[in-house]
Design brief:
2 copies of one chain form a homodimer. Chain A has about 260 residues and is an alpha/beta fold. Helix content of chain A is about 35%, strand content about 20%. Chain A has 10 helices and 12 strands. Chains A, B: Keywords: Methyltransferase, Transferase.
């Protein structure tokens, strides 16, 4: 274990930059924080690149997960450094650096998938991934213009679901074609009422479910190649549902 | 229309204090901001106490809602004042002060109700109220220890649903007893798996649906007097669902 005492330390400066997508892409690394996420990483048997924490926080992790604090790439930091690295107001003073390790390709020949088409809010994307995990889906595909899942807000909203299910960045047209080739139906969730009501849809064993942008919905190009279009009926006077809530209702309908 | 040019103006200082619950209770007033919420207030035919905006914002409201800008209690403000009053990073430069006008009592002899038992996150409470509105529920009851709906974050998450459905602060034991007296079943949503799975529940015409605290669920006292306990099965490895998503899935099951 090495002790770091300044926010100007080279490693700390580099790690703080991982809050930005550019630096995550340059280095292939990302930063997670807080006991729950780090617990999930240990449960998933991931090898960390670096582990950093205040004395109390490191001791807790060492006890809970049999980490040898004399090992390499473990850093004792002070609360000023923790505050500097954290993306939350109240840091839990424990951080882990991990390698970005998403599969580049996937056959899409089986299972239940959520496809995110230009979902732009980091919290929404993370919450939808968490819901897909809870509902027992196999994975989530993000279109190239969707939010980056290594964004700290997305990480926080996922609550560790990135360690449980497949998360893949891919062109949605290619994914939908692959699902279709394997006779897996693909439904597009729509904002407009010309689509079919959700409750008319029977449960299916395998499925692609497209969730669109918060404001604009699924793009015309994608909606056009889906087998069915569905929507959640609004029965009261609200204009719409919160995007993550709407996705949750649809995902659980098919759980 | 009167022009105000300083954040130290007495009225502006008073209105900025309305972000705090204490001052809302002292004055019986609350502040809303942004075009969507103010549009909803006009649609609901509410009389505003004050209307404040920059020239451009006031002109837009005047055009859309036939507001006479020469009328009383309309104030032209600059963007420094707008920034001071706003609870968001990017203010839309339009504000309205309204009277708090919740019914003190309600007979609870009819309809579908969501009962919030110690829901503490302002965004969650607002999102749940918005979902209840979208699902055609008659109203939402908040226990005394739940969040204050006039909190700016709750207002934002509700998206105007407070103008569409009944929102009542009341003791939940009394409300549940009243619902029971009227033969309306009351279900409690639980975090534990000893309860009955959601999909086993048939749709019902009238209902009380208790949603509990984000971390601790429904209190024992309340759960004990409910007719049934229900939970959403977690099929994957996620430990739980986001609280507002979970409430949304349950509410729409009974929509």
């Amino acid at each position: 274990m090495e002790q770091l005492s300044s926010v100007n330390n080279k490693l700390i400066k580099d790690l703080a930059k991982l809050k930005q997508k550019k630096y995550r892409e340059d280095t292939g690394l990302y930063l997670i924080e807080g006991f729950h996420l780090i617990e999930e990483a240990f449960k998933a048997n991931l090898n960390f690149v670096d582990l950093l924490g205040t004395e109390q926080a490191l001791n807790q992790v060492a006890e809970d997960y049999q980490v040898d604090l004399d090992g390499k790439n473990i850093y004792l930091i002070n609360s000023a450094i923790a505050h500097h690295l954290s993306s939350t107001k109240n840091s839990q003073n424990i951080f882990m650096v991990l390698k970005i390790a998403q599969p580049k390709q996937y056959p899409f020949n089986f299972g239940k998938w959520v496809l995110l088409d230009n979902v732009s809010d980091p919290g929404n994307a993370g919450t939808i991934i968490r819901t897909a995990d809870a509902a027992g889906f196999d994975g989530v595909v993000l279109s190239p213009n969707s939010v980056d899942i290594y964004n700290p807000k997305t990480q926080r909203a996922m609550q560790g679901s990135q360690f449980h299910i497949n998360i893949i960045n891919a062109d949605l047209v290619e994914v939908i074609n692959a699902l279709n080739d394997n006779a897996i139906p693909v439904y597009s969730s729509m904002l407009d009422k010309t689509a079919k009501q959700l409750q008319e849809f029977a449960k299916v064993a395998q499925l692609g479910l497209v969730i669109g942008n918060e404001a604009h919905g699924v793009s015309d190009e994608i909606a056009a190649i889906c087998d069915e279009k569905l929507y959640i009926p609004i029965k009261g006077q609200a204009e719409s549902l919160n995007a993550a809530v709407a996705a949750g209702i649809i995902i659980y309908h098919f759980a």
